[in-house]
Design a protein that fits this description.
This protein has 4 domains: about 60 residues, Cytochrome C Oxidase, Chain J (Irregular); about 270 residues, Catalase core domain (Catalase HpII,  Chain A, domain 1), CATH 2.40.180; about 80 residues, Up-down Bundle (Hemocyanin, N-terminal domain); about 150 residues, Class I glutamine amidotransferase (GATase) domain (Rossmann fold), CATH 3.40.50.880. The radius of gyration is 29 Å and the shape is globular. Strand 20 and strand 21 form a beta hairpin. The longest helix has 17 residues. It is of the alpha+beta class. The protein contains 19 helices and 21 strands. The two termini are about 40 Å apart. Bound molecules: CIS-heme D hydroxychlorin gamma-spirolactone. The site of CIS-heme D hydroxychlorin gamma-spirolactone has 26 residues, from strand 4, strand 5, strand 6 and helix 10. CIS-heme D hydroxychlorin gamma-spirolactone binds next to strand 4, strand 5, strand 6 and helix 10. Catalyzes the degradation of hydrogen peroxide (H(2)O(2)) generated by peroxisomal oxidases to water and oxygen, thereby protecting cells from the toxic effects of hydrogen peroxide.
Length: about 700
């Protein structure tokens, strides 16, 4: 891995056809192939007869193809991934753990991160409402550590034995395999209505968190409670957090729905384009730590994965950062074959008795057996970067070859002896466990509504509105009244107003009294607004510039320069792809600018901001229904819209809403109202343009 300084096994496996020492086609056995287009046939030269099965070249090609698919992941099937590195800032976590990856600032640990959606299959769309997986493989010198998390800090269920029920309920229904890429159906809402421990996670997924703008703008959470250990024998409970440098932003539901059709690969393209353009996605790495002695000091169980540890009670400690800087070379061997397992921890990091985590530790290895086989760890993307030396042998698709006569321990030659814990071997914390075997859950696991209420109370008014709309959308897709009646009863226990609003929307019985009182508690970090970056940035934000023949070139250039020096991505959208000419240009001299897309090709939903330069081209734009819809839609989605000179009049005509103020046309001042930025003077001075800022996150 050139960029991170540390090698990965992939380097030895990578074939780069453009630099291969030989440039010819061979069979899988390395035999040169003379023809890959025609199957061997019987023919007298004019008549062509049947194919001959003897053709080993054709058979190999087709048979390989016949077996190209492996089972997709039973959940998180759709995803994408990238390589990068992880670094800690200093030694501050040494008081909690001896794991060098978390304590040694001189280390730059290579990572691979896979982002995913949960419900849909491999071919589903990126922008569906769903939880996003955020799984990180740290290739540490002490072995691989897999932190298999989500973009939401809690989970639907407390016990892993419920996982098959939950997944069956959320996945497409068994009789007709509907729906794809969404949870808006009877079975999901039936299950969560009867399993109220899911209420907290349901609130998160129905909030804007369920439709992120980009993987680069999502938080990540380890979700489960893990432990950290010191060499002197202290144990701490820990939760892991990723916080994106760019802030936490979401799409509007209307945008998400449209993008699902307009560009189903929106998120994966966004990730790779950012890396290609050097706008490297970056996250702060934080921990929340509770000393073992304080495990029972809270009114919730700290081992319950349906609960957060409110930051007011357990503050975040930032200890490091992660940067993604390299795309995979080939999707299948890297993104499809990467395999995570929560049981993959390294010395200094351990498990807790979190019942969800304990079950996960079993399930992930098991699922890799069915997807990839018992030697899944030997696949290039899964290989540790430190030596792997043990007596495991054989199994399907074994790659490693170990010489010698010994494949067991103890052995007379002392080959591969276990390392005593003090010498760096994995050390399981010696916890004393007593009890009676029972199928039981802890007492505090029985309380389900405090934290969903805390979450709802903490949202900004517009976030609450989105949440009501989202639940209403989903329940509207449930045609069994039992399902939406049951869920409105659940909502009553979270917030009375919320329950009434949803019930009214979906035709459910409107509750006449709350299930319980609203305790009025809030926690600031639960709202996305909390993560607004201190300095607004347009880095890698997509800006559409709408032009037709006759736009003002000088002004266009000034805005273009301002945006590109701020590292925004500018797309020129015109009546057709190709040359569009500014005013005063003889069309034959070829001095136009090239439109990247035509108005039908890329809709406003695919952009964060829209800018319309001044010029008589506005008359052309105004005649085009698609352009009018483009701008109205962008305004409706609260996008930043920039308009100058004549374009202001155009905007005023089509976005004729009370309360939206536009600049007078003879003014030099920059005016912003509802995200609409206007500069009024037709002959615009470039100094005025320099002050034009298009801020992200206005939605
Ligand atoms: Fe899981 C995949 C995250 C609970 C069983 N899970 C999977 C992936 C992520 C998560 C991000 C995709 C990994 C990848 O990109 O390859 N899962 C979670 C989180 C959970 C959680 C944050 C709750 C804290 N999972 C969970 C439970 C079970 C599983 C309780 C089973 C008892 N998860 C699986 C699995 C998957 C999986 C079936 C499917 C593909 C895979 O593992 O490799 O084993």
């Amino acid at each position: 891995m050139a960029s991170t300084g540390a090698p990965t096994p992939l380097q030895t496996t990578l074939i780069d056809p453009t630099h291969a020492s030989a440039n010819y086609l061979t069979s899988d056995q390395g035999v040169k192939v003379s023809d890959t287009d025609n199957w061997l046939k019987l023919s007298d030269g004019t008549q062509v007869g049947p194919l001959i099965l003897e053709d080993q070249v054709a058979r190999e090609k087709v048979m390989h193809f016949d077996h190209e698919r492996i089972p997709e992941r039973v959940v998180h099937a759709r995803g994408t991934g990238a390589y990068g590195y992880f670094k800690v800032h200093d030694h501050r976590a040494s008081k909690y753990t001896y794991a060098p990856v978390l304590t040694d600032p001189s280390r730059k640990t290579p990572v691979f991160v896979r982002f995913s959606t949960v419900q849909g299959s491999r071919g589903s769309a990126d922008t569906v409402r769903d939880v996003r997986g955020f799984a990180t493989k740290f290739y540490t010198q002490e072995g691989n550590w897999d932190l298999v998390g989500n973009d939401i800090p809690v989970f639907f269920i407390q016990e892993s034995i419920k996982f098959p029920d939950f997944v069956h309920a959320v996945k497409p229904e068994p009789h007709n395999e509907v729906p794809q890429g969404q949870s808006a159906h009877n079975n999901f809402w039936d299950f969560v209505g009867l399993q109220p421990e899911s209420a907290h996670m349901v609130m998160w997924v129905m909030s804007d968190r369920g439709i992120p703008r980009s993987f680069r703008m999502m938080q990540g959470f380890g979700v489960n409670t893990y432990t950290l250990h010191t060499l002197s024998g202290e144990q701490f409970f820990v939760k892991f957090h990723w916080i994106p440098e760019l802030g936490v932003y979401s799409l509007f539901w209307d945008e998400a729905l449209k993008i699902s059709g307009q560009d189903p690969d929106f998120h994966r393209k966004d990730l790779y384009e950012a890396i290609e353009n050097g706008a490297l996605p970056k996250w702060k790495f934080c921990i929340q730590v509770i000393p073992a002695s304080k495990e029972h000091d809270f009114d919730f169980d700290i081992l319950d994965a349906t609960k957060i540890w409110p930051e007011e009670l357990v503050p975040l400690e930032e200890i490091g950062e992660m940067v993604l800087d390299r795309k995979p070379e080939e999707f299948f061997p890297e993104v499809e074959q990467v395999a995570f397992c929560t049981a993959n921890v390294i010395p200094g990091i351990g498990f807790s008795d979190d019942p969800l985590l304990q079950g996960r530790n079993f399930s992930y290895f098991d699922t890799q057996l069915s997807r990839l086989g018992v030697n899944w760890q030997e696949l290039p993307v899964n290989r540790p970067v430190c030596p792997v030396l043990n007596h495991q042998r054989d199994g399907q698709m074994r790659h490693r070859i170990t010489s010698g006569t010994i494949n067991y321990w103890p052995n007379r030659k002392e080959i591969f002896p276990p390392v005593p814990p003090k010498g760096g071997g994995y050390f399981s914390y010696p916890a004393k466990v007593e009890g009676t075997k029972q199928r039981i859950r802890g007492g505090k696991f029985q309380e389900h509504y405090n934290q969903p209420q805390l979450f709802y109370n903490s949202l900004a008014p517009f976030e609450k509105k989105h949440l009501v709309d989202a639940i209403s959308f989903e329940l509207d897709h449930c045609d069994d009244p039992v399902v939406y009646q049951t869920y409105t009863k659940v909502l009553k226990y979270i917030d009375f107003e919320l329950a009434k609003k949803v019930a009214a929307n979906v035709g459910s019985t409107i509750p006449d009294k709350p299930g319980r009182e609203n305790l009025g508690k809030t926690s600031k970090p639960l709202s996305q607004l909390y993560y607004e970056p201190k300095e607004p940035t347009v880095v890698e934000r997509r800006v559409a510039v709408l032009v037709a023949d006759g736009f003002n070139l000088e002004e266009f250039k000034a805005v273009h320069n301002a945006l590109s020096s701020a590292k925004a991505k500018i797309f020129i959208i015109g009546p057709h792809r190709g040359e569009v000419y500014p005013s005063g240009v003889d069309y034959t001299d070829g001095k136009g600018i090239r439109a990247d897309h035509h108005f039908e090709g890329q809709r406003s939903t695919l952009f964060d901001a829209v800018y319309i330069p001044s010029g008589y081209h506005v008359a052309e734009l105004a005649k085009n229904g698609r352009v009018v819809q483009y701008v109205r839609e962008a305004f409706g989605h609260c996008k930043a819209i920039g308009a100058v000179g004549h374009a202001i009049a155009f905007l005023r005509d089509i976005v004729d809403l009370p309360g939206v103020e536009f600049q007078h046309e003879d003014s030099k001042e920059v005016k912003t109202s509802y995200g609409v930025v206007t500069i009024g003077k037709y002959e615009v001075e470039t100094t005025a343009i320099d002050t034009l800022q298009i801020k992200p996150g206005s939605k």
